[in-house]
Amino acid sequence: MVYRQLLRYNARICTGLGPWLIVVPVAATMLVLFALMAMTSLIREATPVLILETLGPILMAFVGVNLLRPEYQYNALETVLTRPVSFRVILTVRVFLGALAVLALQALLALFMQTVMHKPFSAGAGLLAAGASMVFLTALAVAVAAAWRSPTFGFVAAAAFWVLDLLLGPSLNPLFTLRGYSAHLAQPEAEFGAWVWGKLAVLVAGLILIVLAGKAAARPAIQRSVRRYVQTAVALTVILVAYTCTGVVYKVRWGEAHEEQLLNHSRLYYRTALQPYGPLPVAYLLGPAFPPFTGRQGFFVKASSGSATGLVIERGRDIEQLKVAAFGYPNSRWADNALYELGRLTAQDPGSNEGDARFSVQCLEQLVTQYPSSPFAPPALERLSATYAAAGRLQEARAAVDRLLDAYPGSLSAMDAGRELLMKLTDPSAPGGANLPDALTVVGKLVQAAKPDDRPEFLLQQGLILSDPTIARNAEAIAALQQADSEAAARVQATASVQQPDADVINLLRDMGDIRRRAKEALQRLRAR
Predict the structure, then answer these.
(1) For residue range 417-469, what is the model confidence (pLDDT) as tens digits?
(2) In angstroms, rounded to a whole number, what is the distance separating the alpha carbons of residues 137 and 46?
(3) Which of these, 484, 474, 465, 466, lies nearest to 526 by C-alpha position?
(4) What whole-number distance in Å separates Cα of residue 415 and Cα of residue 403?
(5) What is the pTM of this model?
(6) How far is Cα 495 from Cα 469, in angstroms, rounded to an integer?
């Protein structure tokens, strides 16, 4: 009975607060709806979710603080007799009533985008993601309003965070953002994959703010003085620092976990990840080797001009900073990456000479020797093999490929380095002609180490080399070619059942078809001899 009366009491207050409490959310939703209708062709899957995650929270923050306006207007927060139940109960009931109205508008908007505009997205997931953001932003607005006894202050605080998140939120802190789900849909390969955990963090932060709002409402109103403003500024600064630091650490840790996929782009990713923080020295959070590794030493990062001289100066500066990171901090987390970048940049330097080439090889060799478990070790050996092969030092290139196949069998670097070496060894126009015996040895190791998607290609190469008149091991050549045809057909059959093939599957089917065609042509030539 008491709860029914409480619900009825709060419902009457909600409906008696004036028309603006209804007009503003409905008008904002209609304006967004009209804008969507004008830009239908530009809307992608992430856009509807982005609208739900951004529109709902700011509307709910507006409704939430205004639903509690009577308590602030008549100073009822300090009046015990007029408040027989706790402020937390009043807050929960009244905000729940407002949330039902805002969620109804959100659901209608999602239904319109899905059924009328025919935009493919998960309305349920979008509404749940928006709901977590609504809880946090509303709790932030109510907590500030309760502390300062001002709905205006509360809404301004929520609006400030909303604007910050709308402009820079995912780039500043991919985990703690109002629009983590839409960011993940827009960039599924980026660092927003943990958006579910981010929404949980946002929801927990909202619940904590609700508790703090209840405690703030139970205390006397704070006196607005210079001291209070300074304390508020200090607290806000601490919160912003924590928000920034957690964002930096999360982005860098994500990059560390995906260095094997990033490889040549890993350092570029780290530098790009730190750009939204401007001149802030956030690189020092990851240790003393990270600033020289990323080139972000000091408060400002010098940008090169677009001229050729500026690019050369920037490359030279990068090389010097990488030397500091690699040799000045050999035990750091970034030493292996720095050595790899040094080997890559010095080999590609337009002004490189024989000494630079030797230094590049030295850096790559040191990386492979000192950091064999590093994700950069296989591509370093691949680059060593390519460097030796380009210089005509095929024995050193073969030794590098052998090391790759022994230490990292089946890796992408091993397969690519093996292909490159085979091209050199079977090239009749190379100095000294083709070296088919060595090529046969290399391709035999590749066949043994290759994964199912790569085996048909190397079996075909093995059959073609065995069928060459200078070797003429025709029986073995026929067996290798038949095996290549058989395994390629098996890969086609295994992947043909994919319902929605992507570009990788299509390329694989095309390559397997080409291998089967070449294998059959080679078999016909052999049998016709």
Answers:
(1) 999 989 888 888 777 778 888 889 999 999 999 998 899 999 999 999 998 88
(2) 21
(3) 474
(4) 12
(5) 0.81
(6) 36
